[in-house]
Specification:
Helix content: 25-40%
Strand content: 25-35%
Distance between the termini: 51 Å
Structural class: alpha+beta
Number of helices: 15
Shape: elongated
Largest sheet: 5 strands, antiparallel
Radius of gyration: 30 Å
Length: 576
């Protein structure tokens, strides 16, 4: 199985060719509405960590608005044969198109239907509406554009959220686009008149509002962009329509809406553009000594956590984490805002990697989820990895003291099936830093029994780290050394923090997969609420599907004042 690579995407509207200005006597005064959008891994997920049976797409459509007002093409007069360049501020969008991640329990199914890919392709596009300036004020134009954008986003959220894999395979259908177009037209029609005063409405009835010379939607899929690199697009319009009413307006609409709607022709226009994409390797920069050594965002986050954990040990705290907020002093020294846990509110212990569910040690988000799940199952409010791992000498000796090591590995040919053996207990090494082991209080992340059984074990919902296997199969595939690896973990004691599912909008709409943005958003939200700090669990839920779009909630741990203190830690020392 394989995964897609993020793309650096550039959508560019280049120019408009006027074949017939269609404005009767005099020249045309066109202006352009543009709305860029994407449906990708920044804000979308497939599946739900908290419900392994849920196989639906959920998230929020990203939109990018532009100046919609009169004169935004920098041409006040356009005649037949003219070519109008579209300014980059109106017609260009550069973004990163990321694959849509799939939860672990759905990856096999997605791979079977998606050419062995374990993620889903992102989609990006642009909606354009070419307008002719007639009688609308800029206030009315802005109102219409804002209504257009809001309706587009809400309608797309409604249509995209909750799609299963079969419907996703059909893509964004023509029927969907027609629904969106109808909703947008209705919203613009209601918004523009509401923003006009009495005299504007009278003049609008007599002379007609600004006309729509043409409209179109262009969309680009991840796989097509990878395949072609560059996609040219164009659209030609003849006999454009009004903002709200087609030219074949009936008599009733003529009386209600005014004769100006059908006085002039929209002429003939054509718009040209291109979408180009390149793979986004981090090695694009080539320095004096060749390609640089680089790190993923996950690796950098782990490094930051390790640094704060070491600082906490030196300062006598049980643990710490970075908020990813930084400040600089007048000398250029950089300080990272850091949350230090108090001994009253938290403790630090070494937990076996197996008990944590064997998350990928280099996957930051998986480690965060695993620590939180284990903590909750063992009576704590939450937990954080310190990102320090070490082998337990006692664990290694225990594993090798049994001469029948094959009973663990199951690799010896010709031997009878091993009898069930007792699972090594979860240990708290004497090497644990600044924390109490709490004796036998802890359980494994998947509620594993001390005795091997042959009945299937269902992992805790939301963990997604252990598959449905018998314990005999589980242990039979694990080398005893794996149980000897211990992960330093900070646990927040009961009554020292609250866990809430906070609306994404209340957090400031951070990108779901952006680690620093998630921490900054959680910290700022917590402080606004009167807590000392907060951090994300990275367990997110879509609470409901409503006409207004979606209700995405992000798992957030809110630390009470007694649980931690906040300090700035030197992260870069300037030369003086």
């Amino acid at each position: 199985m394989k995964s897609r690579t993020s793309l650096q995407l550039n959508i560019q509207l280049n120019h408009i060719h006027c074949f017939d200005e269609g404005d009767g006597p005099g020249n045309a005064e066109p202006y352009l509405w543009t709305l860029f959008y994407k449906i990708d891994g920044d804000t979308f997920r497939f599946g739900n960590d908290n419900d392994p049976d849920e196989q639906l797409l959920w998230g929020a459509v990203t939109i990018e608005k532009r100046n919609p007002l009169h004169g935004n093409l920098n041409r006040n007069s356009v005649d037949e044969g003219d070519i109008v360049a579209i300014p980059p501020a109106v017609g260009k969008w550069e973004t990163v198109l990321r694959p849509i991640p799939v939860t672990d329990n759905n990856k096999s199914m997605v791979a079977a239907l998606s050419h062995d890919f374990t993620d889903l392709p992102g989609i990006a596009g642009v909606v354009v509406i070419l307008m002719e300036e007639d009688n609308l004020s800029n206030d009315a134009v802005q109102a219409g554009y804002d209504a257009f954008c809001a309706t587009f986003q809400a309608k797309m959220n409604q249509l995209i959220n909750g799609r299963d894999l079969v419907r996703l395979a059909a893509g964004i259908t023509d029927e969907m686009e027609n629904d969106v177009e109808a909703a947008v037209r209705e919203a613009v029609e209601s918004a523009i008149p509401d923003s006009m005063n009495f005299f504007e409405k009278v003049w609008n009835w007599l002379a007609g509002p600004d006309q729509t010379l043409g409209s179109a939607s262009f969309r680009f899929g991840h796989d097509d962009l990878v395949r072609h690199g560059q996609i040219l697009f164009r659209e030609r319009w003849k006999e454009g329509v009004s903002v709200t009413t087609p030219l074949d307006v009936n008599v009733k609409e003529f009386i209600i809406r005014g004769p100006g709607r059908v006085i002039e022709s929209g002429g003939e226009w054509e718009i040209f553009g291109q979408a180009s994409a390149t793979l986004l390797p981090v090695e694009q920069f080539i320095g004096e000594f060749g390609p640089p050594v680089t790190f993923t965002q996950s690796e950098l986050a782990i490094q930051s956590f390790r640094h704060r954990s070491e600082t906490a040990r030196r300062e006598g705290y049980p643990g710490a984490y970075p908020t990813f907020k930084t400040v600089r002093d007048k000398y250029g020294n950089e300080f990272g805002t850091t949350v230090f846990f108090t001994h009253e509110g938290a403790e630090r212990s070494n937990i076996s990697w197996y008990a944590l569910g064997m998350p990928d040690l280099e996957d930051f988000i998986a480690r965060m989820k695993s620590a939180h799940t284990y903590a909750v199952q063992n009576g704590y409010v939450s937990g954080l990895p310190a990102f320090y791992e070490a082998p337990s000498i006692l664990g290694i000796l225990k594993a090798f003291e049994n001469t029948s090591l094959q009973r663990w590995t199951g690799n010896t040919v010709g031997q009878s099936k091993p009898k069930p053996v007792q699972q090594p207990p979860v240990r708290h090494s004497s090497l644990a830093l600044a924390g109490s082991a709490n004796g036998g209080r802890h359980q494994t992340a998947a509620h594993l029994s001390d005795e091997l059984v042959v009945s299937p074990v269902k992992p805790q919902q939301g963990n997604g780290l252990l598959k449905h296997q018998t314990l005999t199969e589980e242990i039979g595939k694990i080398n005893p050394v794996l149980n000897s690896i211990e992960c330093s973990t900070v646990f927040i004691k009961p009554d020292f923090a609250d866990v809430e599912y906070v609306k994404l909008a209340d957090l400031g709409n951070p990108k779901l997969g952006d680690i620093p943005s998630r921490f900054i958003a959680a910290h700022d939200y917590a402080v606004r609420r009167g807590y000392v700090s907060g951090f994300p669990t990275f367990f997110d839920r879509n609470m409901s599907f409503e006409m207004s779009g979606f209700d995405l909630r992000c798992g957030t741990v809110l630390l009470k004042q007694q649980a931690a203190v906040v300090k700035d830690v030197l992260t870069f020392k300037a030369l003086t």
